[in-house]
């Protein structure tokens, strides 16, 4: 049997079952699948050292928390989401004011990360994970309402590019479209009944090939979102795609809609939301925080972005993917529905309009 132990393996397989079998919210269900993935990884590691392993079972009632479901406060209380509502409770800390627990809680150089709540003999024990801040100016102040966003740009050269710099080349799809066009052109000229039948068969085959490719791209995008702990995947609005992606043929426009639909249902199945933002200027705007300069001349060639104001250079589709994600993050800050501020997932860290870049923790 194939190995299946990473978060992005386990989450899609287990998420639905966990939601159906328990009262857990989507975020708690996701964390439960991550906990299972961790246990399986531990087994594989032991097995590779020649030790005996058996199926992992969780005998003690435990719940995993992260910064979306748990908030630590300065008054030594903690707020936790439950299957019911959010509860805020006192932390019972050892008396010693210099104890190591207080050093982590009070120390500016530490921030909470994934934590575990265990129930034992009527008491609750919270094992709080901490990680070191990357530096003082770029510290994260994430709260429960924050979410990490994956921006996705669609196009012809690359069918999709994510803000984490994952590129899905469009060549294979365009090849299928070309072959279909070629077959159609040749057969329509002969105009016979059998030619018509061949045309229908061929178009069915090309469409199946294209759908297979698009399913794989959709899986790749959802995996990218899981691997970067994203709660939302953001696309540009597809309504006026004819104007926004002028080099797209009708087959490409069909492909974008298919792809969006596939990502939507595959993401929903693992508790990740899919949203759209207005596409205006996402390809001409400089995605560097603090710049945002927007002119046509920022695109000297189709694939290349170079800001005329700050000289920021990037692959054009990657620059657009960042803009798409950032547009959603900025809108979130203005909307009353979401009180936190979100962040954009990049390859090596996260980006927010207010605090700039934060590298991923190395642990
Ligand atoms: Zn710029």
TrEMBL record:
Domain (Probable transposase IS891/IS1136/IS1341) ranges: 136-241
Gene Ontology MF, one: DNA binding
Domain Cas12f1-like TNB per the UniProt entry, residue ranges: 256-324
Keyword Isomerase listed: no
The keyword Transferase is annotated on this UniProt entry: no
Region span, Disordered: 187-209
GO process annotations (BP): DNA recombination; transposition
InterPro entries (UniProt xref): Cas12f1-like_TNB, RNA-guided_DNA_endo/Transpos, Transposase
Keywords carried by this UniProt record: DNA recombination, DNA-binding, Transposition
Family of this protein: In the C-terminal section; belongs to the transposase 35 family.
PANTHER family referenced in this protein's UniProt entry, alphabetically: TRANSPOSASE, TRANSPOSASE, PROBABLY IS605-TNPB FAMILY
Record's protein name: IS1341-type transposase (TCE32)
Organism in which the protein naturally occurs: Halococcus saccharolyticus DSM 5350
